[in-house]
Amino acid sequence: MLRVATRDEAVREMEAAMRMGARFIAQGEPDYPKPLQAADSSPPMICVRGDASILSRPAVAMVGSRNASAAGLTFTGRLARELGDAGFAVISGLARGIDTAAHKAALGTGTVAVLAGGQDRIYPAQNAPLLERIVAEGGAAISEMPMGWEPRSRDFPRRNRIVSGVSLGIVVVEAARRSGSLITARFAGEQGREVFAVPGSPLDPRAEGTNDLIREGATLCASADHIVAALAPLIDIDWTERLSVSEPDDRRIETLWEELDFLSFGEPIRPAPTAVLPDDAAQDLPSGEADDIRSRLLSLLGPSPIGVDDLVRQADVPVRAVQMVLLELELAGRLDRHGGNAVSLVG
Amino acid sequence: MLRVATRDEAVREMEAAMRMGARFIAQGEPDYPKPLQAADSSPPMICVRGDASILSRPAVAMVGSRNASAAGLTFTGRLARELGDAGFAVISGLARGIDTAAHKAALGTGTVAVLAGGQDRIYPAQNAPLLERIVAEGGAAISEMPMGWEPRSRDFPRRNRIVSGVSLGIVVVEAARRSGSLITARFAGEQGREVFAVPGSPLDPRAEGTNDLIREGATLCASADHIVAALAPLIDIDWTERLSVSEPDDRRIETLWEELDFLSFGEPIRPAPTAVLPDDAAQDLPSGEADDIRSRLLSLLGPSPIGVDDLVRQADVPVRAVQMVLLELELAGRLDRHGGNAVSLVG
To answer: Measuring CA to CA, how many Å separate B147 from each of B47, B117, B152?
Structure first.
């Protein structure tokens, strides 16, 4: 339910942002990231905390599993450091696992966290101190959501289009099949971004998604050189030639979701104009069937891995609905994926 | 030094082969493998022990490191079993590591070992019992070399063109950079064979070669399905259309070696006509400088890994010569490669 914000609401919003050192940047303003503005469905306005000038540097996004392996985390750190040394800003989503490792390794050279909630609603809370370091050490935090907005599951895929939107390319480090990182990679491909994937042993379920991406045409990335070589020709691109001043194209994103064979229930995923505040985030939950399915699955899930097939059978709901809910939970960092197509709730 | 065999020598050769249940098959005979006959530089005659009819089945070659990881060996076994179940004969070189795992897993469905020496000179000796099982369980052993021929280092790359030559495609499972398996893969590509490579973590030196192959265009293989899907359209190919009755094209192979940036010293790698016996295998060693370099390197190498750079420095010989000797040793199963571009002699 959208409505135009009142003048008072807008003023309160800007004051709240200023109090925590954040400011709003609208499309067309010089500090608005050029690659993002050239992307379909870019947010009309973003709220930036930290040094906005980092957004004018060439950027690479790094994404991957939350429950990453030691090898995945080690490689992420090495890659982020080398990309930083090569002059790239490292973009990620502040999630645990790969995101955290990427941000940490790029603190010294500059890194950007893209948030799913408002600037004052950090998720996961355990990474709030990391975000403070990111901002203190020349990096930034970006959000398209209003102050005070608690991130819901469905805000994470939306957020991910900004992660890739501000970047020249995106690297998927470890990703199970049907994982959120793959969705991000496909959005990135739709946006015309270079997609890189880090390979892994066929015996490692956390490499299934990235190996699939490579078979589908993503560039195999085994070192920073592979990324630097591919992106070098893009650094001096004239984004103004690609700028679109048209309205955000919601239909494009909805179509992509359809193609991905996921059930899109509730409201369509679309950029929420930052200056337009929903009445109440709590009222914004999808109603009826979707809620029903979500709560039924949540009660069936626990910390022990269960096969998705078993879950579908026991929940007695359509496979696509189950997959959509699992994806939401995973993007929100509440679901872990295991080998043999099994899942469990985090903690 | 080649000379035409006398009639007596040819008769003795055929009698020796018959005594161990082997027979010679010449190009143009019905049992000569069609894909091999269509390949450049195919041997005019091969000696086959076991059930030659397996050579008329569609075949996949599996190659990789001798010092393979547990994961590499496990995946090799799974892949070979699945390829066998899908109707493919599994071809390999009877070496330890990946070759051994592939042969063992495909015993029940049929597997073919291609030898670098004569049928009565099995290398490595420890795999002689495995070869007996291969032959006893419906598989076969192929060699283009005369009876009594002790395999020299330089016979292994030559042998490898037969491994890929009888196959529709070749899978490289684990391979370090600059390893013999990569040479085999490139020969296979030159022969027009499908090249598959199994990916691995960028942190695993044993995956560097296969990841490179994928970046260069080889098909990423993470399951047997990936191979079966790619090769299915080739199974009913009419090889007679591709048959070449021209002389083996030695120049092609020599050129390939040059392209590979390895020093080709001693005699050029060319198919040795089986019916033509060298006077004495011992006289056939390359003379002068090459021998000198080889013995100098052998005295410097031991069971402890040493960096190739250090080896070059201490041997004070050209890098390309060192690489060539190392490759020979590796193909002969006498050299292990380790991370950080280090090598050691096999126990």
So the answer is: 9, 8, 14
Tell me, what's the ipTM?
A: 0.71
CA distance B12 to B14: 6
Cβ of B199 within 8 Å of Cβ of A219? The answer is no
Residue B266 in this model has a pLDDT that exceeds 60 = no
| A246, amino acid identity | S
- Say if strands A22-26 and A45-50 run parallel, antiparallel, or are unpaired: antiparallel
Polymer length in residues for chain A: 347
Of B200, B208, B212, the CB nearest to A200: B200
- Using CA atoms, how far apart are residues A91 and A88, in angstroms rounded to an integer? 9
Q: Residues 148 to 207 of A: which have CB under 8 A from any B CB? A: 198-204, 207
Backbone φ and ψ of A219, nearest 5° = -80, 130
The percentage of chain B sitting over the pLDDT mark of 70, rounded to a whole number, equals: 84
Walk across the sheet containing A194-197 and list its strands. A22-26, A45-50, A140-143, A111-114, A89-92, A59-63, A169-172, A194-197, A219-220
B76 touches chain A (CB under 8 A): no
- For the record, the structure tokens of A278 come out as 């929903």
Cα–Cα distances (Å) from B215 to A219, A227, B212, B287, B303, in that order, read: 7, 12, 5, 39, 32
Q: Are the Cβ atoms of B199 and A214 closer than 8 angstroms?
A: yes
Residues of B in contact with A213 (CB under 8 A): none
Distances (CA, A) of A298 to A177, A234, A265, A315, A328: 21, 44, 17, 10, 12
Closest of A9, A320, A19, A334 to residue A178, by C-alpha: A320
Contact A64, A97 (CB under 8 A): yes
Closest CA to A123 of A158, A96, A160, A147: A96
Residue B44: exposure state from Cβ atoms within 10 A (0-12, 13-18, ≥19):
middle
Q: Which parts of chain A sit beneath pLDDT 70?
A: 1-3, 240-288, 347
Q: Strands A59-63, A89-92: parallel, antiparallel or unpaired by DSSP?
A: parallel
A300's tokens: 């069936």
